[in-house]
Specification:
This protein is mainly alpha-helical. The chain has 3 domains: about 160 residues; about 60 residues; about 45 residues. It has 9 helices and no strands.
């Protein structure tokens, strides 16, 4: 038993509507009661009126139950089951149960797809069906899923053949009423004729629609051809204003080239002017710094002279006093 098989089985049973919640832990150990409940439910899904023994208390009852289910699945659903694995009622039984649930799940999905296709067809019944082949494929899948149920019904009908043969023989032996038979035949013939007339009307409508569509397509083709010829004519004729247009375009190109050249010159001159202003500013700042240094130097020299004058005057006074 793989984890994926067990997960797929639980999800399929949940989707099919099994009333009991199945956990992945239910099959860690043998659980024949749960397996029997699942088998009974699956058999009822195939054949609601199937009479199958539900007593599984003793070993012989369980063996009889497993054989009955396996025989039913083989004859009704054409599914071959391993009775030994089913009797183990553990993880290996899940693989056998998965054979049954896979068929039911596929049939359910196919039926759902068929219902969706039917709704879509009703919504788009006045539109062109461009996916008829896909619908045929889906119908084929649906028919394939119905083969099992039809085979089971056929088997039941064949089982009633003995009783039906006697009834049929009695009915054939009974004398026929000519008037009643003629009346029934006339009604059947009338119904068939009406169906034929209805089919003919539908075919005539289809032919009429096809002719109408062909006429519209031909008209569109003619319009397309006229427009193509008109386009070729317009492309081959040179407009009268093209000479003037080309001359103006040439002059405009020359003016643009001149503009680009002058713009480049202007940008260059502006950069030169900015450089000149920068140099002038540097020279001005340098001259200002030089002047400031000269002023500072003159102050220092003036202070030195004043100190020297004061010292000379002091010495003069001292010498004169003595």
């Amino acid at each position: 038993m793989s984890f994926r098989d067990l997960r797929n089985f639980t999800e399929m049973m949940r989707a099919l509507g099994f009333p009991r919640l199945i956990s992945m832990e239910n099959f860690r150990t043998p659980n024949f009661t749960l397996v029997a409940e699942i088998l009974i439910w699956l058999v009822k899904r195939y054949e609601p009126h199937m009479d199958i023994p539900t007593d599984v208390d003793s070993e012989s009852d369980r063996i009889f139950f497993i054989k009955a289910v396996a025989q039913f699945m083989a004859t009704k659903a054409h599914i071959k089951l391993n009775t030994k694995r089913l009797y183990q009622a553990d993880g290996y039984a899940v693989k056998e149960l998965l054979k049954i649930t896979s068929v039911l799940y596929s049939a359910m999905k196919t039926k759902q797809m068929a219902l969706d296709d039917q709704v879509e067809e009703e919504n788009n019944k006045f539109k062109f069906d461009l996916s008829s082949r896909i619908s045929d494929l889906k119908t084929a899948r649906q028919l394939a899923s119905e083969v099992t149920s039809k085979g089971a019904s056929l088997y039941d009908l064949l089982g009633k053949e003995v009783e039906l043969r006697e009834m049929r023989t009695a009915a054939l032996a009974r004398p026929l009423e000519i008037n009643e038979t003629e009346k029934v035949l006339r009604a059947a013939i009338k119904e068939v004729l009406q169906s034929v007339e209805k089919t003919k009307d539908m075919l005539n409508n289809v032919v009429s629609d096809e002719n109408s569509l062909d006429a519209k397509i031909e008209k569109k083709k003619q319009e397309l051809e006229r427009n193509r010829k008109r386009l070729q004519t317009l492309q081959s004729v040179r407009p009268a204003f093209m000479d003037e247009y080309e001359k103006i375009e040439e002059d405009l190109q020359k003016q643009y080239d001149t503009y680009v050249e002058k713009f480049k010159n202007l940008c260059f001159l502006e950069s030169q002017l900015d450089e000149y202003h920068r140099l002038e500013q540097e020279r001005f700042e340098e001259a200002e710094n030089t002047l400031r240094m000269m002023q500072h130097k003159l102050r220092e020299e003036e202070q030195d002279l004043m100190r020297s004058s004061c010292e000379f005057h002091h010495l003069f006074l001292v010498s004169h006093t003595s």
